[in-house]
Amino acid sequence: MSEQNTVEVETAHGRVSGLVADGTARFLGIPYAAAPAGDLLFAAPVPPEPWAGVRAAHTFGATAPKPPLGGRLGEIVSDPDVEGEEWLNLNVWTPDPAASGLPVLVWIHGGGFTTGSSAVPSYDGATFARDGLVCVSFNYRLGVYGFGCLPDAPAPANRGLLDQIAALNWVRENIAHFGGDPDNVTVAGESAGAMSILALLSRDDGLFHKAIVQSGTAHLGQTPADAGKVLKAVADELGVESTAEALAGVDTEELLKAQGTVSADISQTPDADKYGASTMASCGLSFMPVVDGDVLPRRPIDAIADGAGSGIPLLMGTTTEEFRLFVVTTILVGWNLPALYDKHLKAYSVPDGSWAEYKKGDTNAYPRDAATGVACALLSDRMFRIPTYRVAEARAAIPDAARTHLYEFGWRSPVTPNNLQVKIGACHSVDLPFAWDTVALADSKKLTGPNPPQALATALHRTWADFAKTGQASWAAYDTTDRPVMTYARNNNATTHQVVEDPRRSERTWWDGHPATS
Predict the structure, then answer these.
(1) Which residue of 236, 402, 477, 517 has the smallest Cβ count within 10 Å?
(2) Which one is catalytic: 86, 190, 322, 507?
(3) Which one from 118, 122, 191, 263 is the annotated catalytic residue?
(4) Close Cβ partners of 35 (under 8 Å, ≥ 6 residues apart)
């Protein structure tokens, strides 16, 4: 290990000490808001109390309470736990705290709004600092604490989004002290992080200037009534009222256990009558942003279509086989008959006839010879690819809107997290070690397998870094004529990166006019 020195930086709430190694200074676990404890548990975030002296920012701060990732998914996806009450903290990596005007990349982690943190080893901001950016990552409240809809709470809904807004305000106020430019901030996120970015984009607050959205959807937003159904189910598991007052008195571990039971029920046995149509529209999520008319005034896609955030350049990506992560790591991997998926397809508002359409679809390098392959292709489009295209199409129709660049990641991981030896493939999240250029880490190889192609990581990471600096990509912006999509590792060839016009056109047009993706 290289020798580490310390460096100090002044922030709005006190002085912090970071560690310097290999040309990068890192500051970990800096509070951007007060600990959400006591009266603040279900309240909007407030600034932290200033501290005297120098606060050591040498290790990751506390992670938000979350259930463990169990089963085969937990074997291939890391989700570290760090104990403590100061969950609302962030990390900064910078090539030079004494510099000025460096572009800033702010990472919002995923995890289905119930898991995840900024302490995941693959999210090592030193790789972006190496390339001349200041990188920031942060934690936010999850599950019931962050997204449970509680009418009697000081902040009734979307506390997790309010945390994200507070972190971005901290960046605007403090990042210049770390060498960053507060007027050149790019937010990047994957999965729930990407969905959060689209929700924030729809608010048009001016807190960021570019955005990288990986595996997200703007067709997301529970109604308060449906969010209340989910929360009542959790409260019923606990034998308490579904109020902030009652839930505040429940032991955290017990609450997480009940939350996990309800989340499993929603994903494994979807029921729109029980949990609401807007919950089912998320294709398996239990907690998510709520269209409350305040923090989130409208469903993000509707606001974006009306021009919200149209001045923000977007880089948006999906993986070719997103839904494989949620199928081949679960009992669904053994479902070999199409009829077994009928309940999920109906709950997720998939059009009639879709199975036959996708069964005959493009199978080049991406298997559809089994029911799992067809289901994964169909649900990948329903949840991720088509909603991504809808954002790009909406922005293309807005005069003078900033550019929207689309890409697809097609490299298939050989990892087989099941007893049937079914590969995880080009699944949800497999691209992250490549985007972060951390494929060499042992932690990353749990998902990628032992020999991930470094050249592919170099290419995708460069695209992210360059976009964060300039707002530009090396290929044309999306339009509704040519529909260019940069395809990394096309047909699972790790060295073939090329623009494909209107990939899988027949499957794209299959969804035209359908309410689930409109």
Answers:
(1) 236
(2) 322
(3) 191
(4) 85, 86, 87, 88
